[in-house]
Amino acid sequence: MKPKEHQVMKKRHQPETEAIRTQINRTEFLEHSAPLYLSSSFVFEDAEDMRASFAEEKERTIYSRYSNPNTSEWIEKVCKMEGAEDGFAFASGMAAVFSTFAALLNSGDHVVSSRSVFGSTHTLFTQVFPKWNISHSYFRYDRLEEAEALIRPETRILYAESPTNPGVDVLDLEALGQLARKHNLLLVIDNCFATPYLQQPIRFGADLVIHSGTKLMDGQGRVLAGITVGSRELIDRVYRFSRITGPALSPFNAWLLSKSMETLAVRVDRHCENALKIAEFLSSHPKVNWVKYPFLKTHPQYELAKKQMKAGGCVVAFEVQGGVDGGRTFFDQIELLSLSANLGDTRSIVTHPASTTHSKLSPEDRLESGITDGMVRISVGLEHPDDICADLGQALDAVK
Ligand SMILES: *Cc1c(COP(=O)(O)O)cnc(C)c1O
């Protein structure tokens, strides 16, 4: 059984407060900040304690593949922010995605998913799950009637990300929740781009919410991590699969992440403020064909984004003039920003999805996911927005 050693607060507070004040029980030293529990295993009081612990008659820490105090603290914070009952933490976002599907699906099952999913998730659907006779069908993010037509008797999970990567399209979470309930499916949402601070999919009917903690949750480009949260019953299935197969998060990474959660709200507020400024700057630049950002009024799902998100997130997508050549010139001229595949870092990052993260998709699938050859994804960081705009501006000026 998973331990509940957290210091449970009687009164519920605002999410920002929960992210700061949720803490595992203090040790005899009465430390203010939670210590790091780098211990693979935990000891038993006596033979009876050992027997009862293994028989799952008590909730306690046994082995860090199952649970660890630092990991539990991070999970508890994410659960409180997402409005979830329980969770399990993983070594990476992809470990969370894989283990969640693998725990809940059997051979012969089918998944209906938005086509606009993270590149490695797409590879899971197309290359890994077929090995176990688990199939999928894709719908376009803005065509839920298409999704409904794809549902079969063996469909178990409805899956989506919102906002999407890298196109920052917004899916209607409430409509997805209704569709899932109507057909008795589990709605699983990858909420990585929004973070639990900006959007809580469970409020709109999601059964499970997945995050890559690697992105805005750590926010400083230091660790890989993943998490799945939801009802106690579903998480128990994810937990039973995962404690055997071993994708557990390292306590050190959990400790870092738990500290990062204390600043999540202030960091994400600034990321979003900067991102909106950068999106507005790009909108008026003559070398830019189009700009997409959920909280930009020109975004096709602006109203929907406003309804389900607190702010637009850190990712801005745009297209440089001149196709592939324009894109190359732009990337080679960038000075301050990093050319990297990560996102949600304090440092602003520019990526070319068509040649990197989404190169495994067929050209047709790329276009269906809104990824054109000249598309650039910026993960807007916490540098001064004037400096970010100046770097983007000088690189764009070089484009013919
Ligand atoms: C990065 C990412 C993942 C995978 O997370 P890792 O921590 O890199 O394994 C999954 N989904 C989305 C939306 C992501 O951005």
Automatic annotation (TrEMBL):
InterPro entries: Cys/Met-Metab_PyrdxlP-dep_enz, O-succ-hSer_sulfhydrylase, PyrdxlP-dep_Trfase, PyrdxlP-dep_Trfase_major, PyrdxlP-dep_Trfase_small. GO terms for molecular function: carbon-sulfur lyase activity; pyridoxal phosphate binding; transferase activity, transferring alkyl or aryl (other than methyl) groups. Pfam families: Cys_Met_Meta_PP (PF01053). GO terms for cellular component: cytoplasm. It catalyses: O-succinyl-L-homoserine + hydrogen sulfide = L-homocysteine + succinate. The modification N6-(pyridoxal phosphate)lysine is found at K215. The keyword Transmembrane does not apply. It is an enzyme of class 2 (transferase). Pathway: Amino-acid biosynthesis; L-methionine biosynthesis via de novo pathway; L-homocysteine from O-succinyl-L-homoserine: step 1/1. The keyword Cytoplasm does not apply. CDD domains: CGS_like. Its cofactor is pyridoxal 5'-phosphate. Keywords: Amino-acid biosynthesis, Methionine biosynthesis, Pyridoxal phosphate, Transferase. One of its GO terms (biological process) is 'de novo' L-methionine biosynthetic process. It comes from the Bacteria. Its EC number is 2.5.1.-. Catalyzes the formation of L-homocysteine from O-succinyl-L-homoserine (OSHS) and hydrogen sulfide. Belongs to the trans-sulfuration enzymes family. MetZ subfamily. Homotetramer. HAMAP family: MetZ. This is O-succinylhomoserine sulfhydrylase. It comes from Robiginitalea biformata (strain ATCC BAA-864 / DSM 15991 / KCTC 12146 / HTCC2501). The gene is metZ.
